Amino acid sequence: MKATKISIIGAGYVGSATAFALLNHGIATDIVLVDVNNDRAKGEAMDLDHGKVFVSPVNVVAGSYEDTTGSDIVIITAGLAQKQGETRIDLVNKNIEIFKQMIPQIVKYNPDAILLVVSNPVDILTYVTYKLSGFPQHRVFGSGTVLDTARFQSDLSIRFQVDPRDIRANIIGEHGDSEVATWSVTTIAGLTVDQYCDLVGIEFTEEDKKRISEGVKNAAYEIIERKGYTNYAVALAITRIVTAILRDEKSILTVSTLQQGTYGLEDVYISVPTRVGRRGALDVIEVPYSSDELKALHRSAQLLKDIIKDSTLQ
Q1: Per-residue model confidence as pLDDT tens digits over 102-148
Q2: pLDDT digit string (tens) for 215-240?
Q3: Which of 25, 50, 175, 298 is catalytic?
Q4: Which of 41, 67, 226, 314 sits most deeply, having the most CB atoms within 10 A of its CB?
């Protein structure tokens, strides 16, 4: 097996769950955890390393940025969470200052790595990472709406009582409140939603669509209200992206990538179907969405651009 090194910056709930998911999938020979709280990173690494006897050979350590040298992929989960009473732009600016310190260190030791950004707001911070790193755009992208898409498929599978793997459905746009459920191209076993419902005798209205879309958008809020954070599903989403990279699958995933003309969008990181392989985000697939969905995608992009414009990055 070819040696594969993955470094995770941030050993909190998401970072540690990601390390656990990667360890279980056996796609890395080396996993490095880096955190400002070095004791926490060491504790997580020790705990994970003790389980390596049950999985494919892997070495898990905690270390410094220097210890990440030679990583194939650097996964960035570090950053501050939004506090009560804090505006979105407040959160963005605080995390930009963190990234201004962090990204040069990552780049110094990993000039050839792929940078996968997970920290929220992910579209904004992926753009920040791209600007600060100086890397080509195909080697800097975010987890985007890969998890939102999975939630969409999961909810549809429950509603229609079918295997979620038989559903093709995407959430595009911002990973957040302006995300867009693309009902116009959603299929079940190759059939449109309306065709499938007619075939099996299910009543499914526009109100049902709206309820499911809102449920997907608000899922993270509900989880956070109940347990305080999300970590397991996002860790699996990250692992799916990493697998597509390392195995050069050229999978089409809704990662957050830089748009330079596609869908009529310019200079904004946002989630749309993108081919992902060993070189990173290879190219965007322009799907013929409905006019309403495209308008919503453009509104979402403008929202993100306005936040960047008002941020301390400029």
Answers
A1: 999 999 999 999 999 999 999 999 999 999 999 999 999 999 999 99
A2: 999 998 899 889 988 999 999 999 99
A3: 175
A4: 41
Domain count along the chain: 2
Q: Where are the beta strands (DSSP E) in 127-213?
A: 140-142, 167-168, 171-172, 180-181, 187-188, 191-192
Q: Is 130 helix (H, G, I), strand (E, B) or coil?
A: helix
What residues make up the domain containing 138? 5-142
pLDDT digits (tens, 9 = 90+) for 170-214: 999 999 899 999 999 999 999 999 999 999 999 999 999 999 999
Q: Residues 92, 307: contact at Cβ < 8 Å?
A: yes
* Judgement on whether residues 10 and 66 belong to the same structural domain of the protein: yes
Q: Which of 96, 116, 142 is the last residue of a domain?
A: 142
Q: Are residues 80 and 154 in the same domain?
A: no
175 assigned to active site = yes
Cα 88 from chain centroid?
Answer: 19
Is there a single domain that holds both residue 57 and residue 151? no
Residue 183 and residue 289 in one domain? yes
